[in-house]
Amino acid sequence: QVQLVESGGGLVQAGGSLRLSCVGSGRTFSTHGMGWFRQAPGKEREFVAGINVSGRREYNEDFVDGRFTISRDNAKSTVYLQMNSLKPEDTAAYYCSRSRSSGIYYRPEEFDYWGQGTQVTVSS
After folding, report:
1. Could you say which DSSP state residue 4 is in?
2. Cα(88)–Cα(13) distance, rounded to whole angstroms?
3. Element (H, E) at 32
4. Cα distance between residue 52 and residue 113, in whole Å
5. How many degrees, rounded to 5, is the angle at CA 20 between CA 15 and CA 24?
6. CA distance 42 to 53
7. Helix or strand or coil: residue 1?
């Protein structure tokens, strides 16, 4: 069984930064792509960023616009999401997820394990 535990969320003013972390259990962390999703109240869960086993990254360019960076440290079984220049519309619960294989995927059904989520609130 794989467990993912997020941390690093909180309340921040617009323009501020947060770094989310997600620690995974199990020995298969390094062989799977990882992703970050977010979900605001009343909205569907949406893809934020993904990273494959080789470190290639992709972002949702509808709103990331160079502000976020996803990274991974396989030795620590941890994936990060550095978020800069935060906006009130970034307010959401952020979820770490493990994809079903080694690549980058974008739809929630392509991920098999999820963390419990960490709340990010950006005040104006």
Report:
1. E
2. 8
3. none
4. 15
5. 170
6. 33
7. coil
| Helix/strand/coil (H/E/C) assignment for every residue in 38-89 | EECCCCCCEEEEEECCCCCEEECCCCCCCCEEEEEEHHHCEEEEEECCCCHH
Residue 79's beta-bridge partner residues? 22, 72
Q: Please give the pLDDT value at position 11.
A: 98
* Amino acid at site 29: F
Distance (Å, whole) CA 2 – CA 6: 13
Per-residue pLDDT tens, the chain, 124 aa: give them: 899 999 999 999 999 999 999 999 977 789 999 999 999 999 999 999 999 999 999 999 999 999 999 999 999 999 999 999 999 999 999 999 999 999 999 999 999 999 999 999 999 9
Concatenated DSSP letters of 90-123: G-EEEEEEEESSSS---SGGGEEEE---EEEEEE
Mean pLDDT computed over every residue of the chain: 96
Query: So what's the pLDDT on residue 29?
Result: 85
Q: How many CA atoms lie within 13 A of 37 on its CB side?
A: 24
